Amino acid sequence: MNKVQIYLASGSPRRQQILRDAGFDFQLWKMDVDEQFPPEMPAEDVPSYLAAKKMYAAARQLHDKDGVIITADTVVILNGRIIGKPEDEADACNILSRLAGQTHTVITAVCLRKGASEQIITSETKVFMLPMSMEEIRHYVVTARPLDKAGAYAIQEWVGLARISRIEGDYYNVVGFPMSAVYPHLKALLEESD
Question: Which of 20, 40, 58, 94 is at 20 to 30 A from 184, Cα to Cα?
Answer without folding.
Answer: 58
